Amino acid sequence: MLSRNFKCYCFAASVQGKPFKWGRTNCVMLAARLYDKLEGGKFWRKQEMNVLSEQQALKLCKSKPVYNAMVSNGFKQVKAKNMRLGDLIYVYADGLERLHIYYGEACLSSTAADGVVMLNTAEVVNYKNAICLSKGS
């Protein structure tokens, strides 16, 4: 059986550098695809949070469905120092919910301007209202 860390690294290698595309490589879909791989199913697909435009995302994010779905599916808030590979950093800013995937000093993220890139984890965690989330062991 492949380890969680191995699956996380393989996933990052497969998506890093790809262009941003709503419904494929936006940050929520990256997290969805990773957790599908980690949990062997369609964990996030059932949440129906796949959006195809920024306007749709802005409308949907008003009620914070991403955060609510994570909590209802077993994600718990943790301190940044207790995060492990593949955990998520949730940020709500400018009307959008954003997810970053934790990889130690860097985290996998996706923006319309840069596509799928690694960002400095310390900067993301220190962003106003950032919440570190983990789903068990």
Can you tell me about this structure?
The chain is of the alpha+beta class. The chain has helices at residues 4-15, 27-39, 54-61, 65-72, 121-125; strands at residues 76-77, 88-93, 96-103, 106-111, 115-120, 131-134. It has a six-stranded antiparallel sheet with strand order 1-6-2-3-4-5.
**Mind telling me the C-alpha Rg?**
14 Å
Main beta sheet: strand number and arrangement? 6 strands, antiparallel
Shape: globular
What would the average pLDDT be, to the nearest integer?
89
Put simply, the count of helices is: 5
Encode the helix/strand succession as letters.
HHHHEEEEEHE
Count of beta strands = 6
Helical percent range?
25-40%
Report the β-strand fraction as a percent range: 15-25%
Sheet with the most strands: spatial strand order? 1-6-2-3-4-5
Q: Runs with pLDDT <50, length 5+?
A: none
Q: Which structural category fits the helices and strands?
A: alpha+beta
Distance between the termini: 16 Å
Task: Provide tags for this entry.
single chain; alpha+beta; 137 residues; 34% helix
Topology, element by element:
Blueprint: H1 4-15, H2 27-39, H3 54-61, H4 65-72, E1 76-77, E2 88-93, E3 96-103, E4 106-111, E5 115-120, H5 121-125, E6 131-134
Antiparallel strand pairs: 1-6, 2-3, 2-6, 3-4, 4-5
